[in-house]
Amino acid sequence: MTMIVTGGAGFIGGNFVYYQLQNFPQDRVVCFDNLTYAGNLKTLDEAMKNDNFRFVKGNIADREAVFQLFEEEKPDIVVNFAAESHVDRSIEDPGIFLTTNIMGTQVLMDVCRKYGVGRFHQVGTDEVYGDLPLDRPDLFFTENTPIHTSSPYSASKAAADLLVLAYHRTFGMPVTITRCSNNYGPFHFPEKLIPLMITRAMGDESLPVYGAGENVRDWLYVEDHCSAIDLVARKGRVGEVYNIGSHNERTNLQVVKAILAELKKPESLICFVKDRPGHDRRYAIDSSKLQNELGWQAKTDFDEGIRKTVRWYQDNQSWWREILQGSYRDYYTNMYGNR
Ligand code: NAD
Ligand code: DAU
What we know:
Helix content is about 45%, strand content about 15%. By secondary structure, the protein is α/β, with parallel strands linked by helices.
């Protein structure tokens, strides 16, 4: 069996590559990734030592390169992680989000159709549902919640989901989609809340919390996301969407305080800054469809997950310090300088 994993040099895709190599050692895994600012070959150092792993640098929106890859590999399954994934960047510069997230997905659908790929799995996000009010803890996103996007990022992800479902309905393509809540864990690029706060707190730098820090996210340890995607891509019903979440809701302030406690750093590092435009208030996921149909359960709760994550950033400083030395510095100044 050959699986193509697009975006496998990124955070979740990288973790997924390891999940596959460890759990299905007889299968071949081919990572196709354009190595944007968020892609990092160091993440795949260990995978590169495995004979069943191949890395190919390329852009999912580059039709010729993608068709060439499929001609060579004739994959059985394709799992699409490749995307521009950061909401703040999509507010600054939406164009690339449309090219990669929508047009790139279309190229992948076309190539899967041509080569009769047995399953195309699209890694989606709960952000396509918009947000929930803070004062209604009884409400959760289900697969039937209407699409109602807030940012250019989430709009591009919603468009991709709709395209995937359209290719299923029109051309009978064997597709599945998962929509997951916020992930955290190893190899998470330090522009996102949890790795940003861990790496800055380790250097005793100020921690920029948007608004009053009251927005709520449902945090899922990345390995649990990988197990859910794997289950759906192999055993989920075609044409179906499955939500993934684990009822680990926390306000951003709770998350930052948990990190500070773990690192034994003072809360005086917290600094409230101007809010994100259109900031989604609360995400909360009902994943009972996935649990009932496929028996999936998250294994790691937030307290354990944050401990493991902090430890990983303490033990793997060369991985993230190298990132912080590059163009990331300009990014941080532009994004946070005037906040
Ligand atoms: P990431 O930004 O860490 O990684 C994205 C990867 O895609 C990088 O390796 C990058 O080089 C690659 N890439 C970008 N554009 C490409 C292109 N045109 N062609 C080929 N490769 C390209 O993202 P992530 O956080 O790992 O997210 C992966 C997927 O999961 C995304 O589709 C995202 O929307 C979705 N998702 C993320 C979360 C989360 O909390 N991070 C939650 C739910 C869903
Ligand atoms: O829900 C799934 C989504 O989760 C994924 O689809 C996205 O790819 C992923 O980036 C993530 O989106 P968020 O916008 O929720 O993640 P982010 O880490 O950017 O922000 C989490 C929360 O923390 C959000 O309420 C904004 C806040 N925040 C973020 C940053 C970067 C801060 O308060 N300060 C910050 O510096």
